[in-house]
Amino acid sequence: MNKLKYLALLVLGLGILFPFTYLVLLSFSGEWFFPEVLPGYFGLKNWKEILNSESGMGLSFISSLGISLLVATLGTGTGFIWSKSIAYHSQKETWLVLAYFPYMLSPVVLAACLNFFFLKSGLSGTWQGVVLGQYLVAFPYSVIFFQAFWNHRTRQFEQLVLTLGGSSRQAFVQVILPLAKGMILVCFFQTFLISWFEYGLTALVGVGKVQTLTVKVFLYIKEANFYYGAIACCFLVWPPVLLLYLNKRFVYNRLV
Amino acid sequence: MKSKSAFGLLFFFLLGLLPFAAALVYALLYSLGIVGILSEGVSLTHWQQVIQSGELLGSFLYSALLAGTGVSLSVILALLISMGLRTSLQHRFWSLLMYFPLAIPGMVASFLSIQLLSKAGFFSRISMKLGWIDRLQEFPDWINDSYGIGIILTFVLIVSPFFVILFSNVYQNERIAELSTLAYSLGARGNQVFWQVTLPILFSKTKRIMILYFIFLLGSYEIPLVLGQESPQMLSVLIIRELKQFDLKLIPEGYVVAVAYTVVIAIAALLVFRRKEVQVHE
User: What are the residue boundaries of the ABC transmembrane type-1 domain, all occurrences included (chain B) (predicted)?
Assistant: First the structure.
């Protein structure tokens, strides 16, 4: 390998790690005035302040985590079960194209047009409303995602169990679920990220009462409180990095 | 078995399609003045006003331009990285590292762009330290600028890593290396192999995902919200701004833009995922 490639690799590696390092650096910084390249203070002050004060960062983290886990569980679970009905339907292509409509639409626009219904049902400003709103995006994604699983081979496995005297329940629990384990894990991870990264819909349906981490970051940007913003960003970015590391083997390889 | 299937379709219809249909119908009725606090019966006034003002068309073109530029630059950068460093990226460490940027959401990417690209940002400080600029004002406008440079750069930051992984996977799955060797053995040159073997295969396998990303960026919200300017605005930002304004008489105009955008997305879905395409990609 020539020097140019080494240099390109070095630039690429630094480019990838830089945002993560910068966020951590900023979260520990203070008195970082223009035009200084390095901060005047570096220490635990911001982290201590944010964890001891009533900033609600811990609550935001728990809210984000709870909402995302719920959306991922509901989205993946129902998507897996009901995607079968579409996969084996004679009008499968039509159903699938319809499934792409809500998935391709901007979530915030969908939420804005549905806001009237959220207000009327009393779901506006509640975590249940945010979960429902995000679920409306995650569910079609999940249905589309599992179409690749419900193929001829899976159907033959299912029929084989029934032929050998097994029940539908046994076929589902002892054959289909183990077969789909990998894809379920990937879908759970993807829908978790859809929810974890979501801002517009959450802000609109949650009307500021449901403060997930993305909402918090936006608030800190508006307040120009970049040190606290960096801490919120660290909370947002590092858990998915950990999940990516754990799930790398499964993610995206099946997309193509 | 049949009743289970029917129940599944009903569930999908209720939670997958009905909300979309309800949103579209409600927005359409509001835009026509049929529903809403200040509705005065069926009227096309709001549609006429939006069309005459030119803001809808301007926003569509602006969004399409930024989304198209974002996807194009991301694809070019991803091609350079994935093809130029192909053998290295197959190494365990690098293949893992390439996944890291996928953990950066739009809001964090916007935050980083402000921190790095603004006039008082990190790159501006470095430029001053290196003597490239003498004053803060000399650093170019990349945030909240009229050309959307900050938005485009942020799009590239979040989209290109995905395409690097995608191209690397397609390269392996489609056995492009073997096909290239075959082309070389038949007398093809390096350039010919790239333009006539590698690129056509990569594009044909990923074009649908490229279009999907274009559509996602077209409706992107948080990045243009944080990094964009007052006018023109990208579609989602414009729609939310119109719907949240204090003048209730103007809210239907927001729904006009929302309906137009939703219809465009629906048509795009029909065109991209029409029957033939779906069957080919199964």
Answer: 60-272
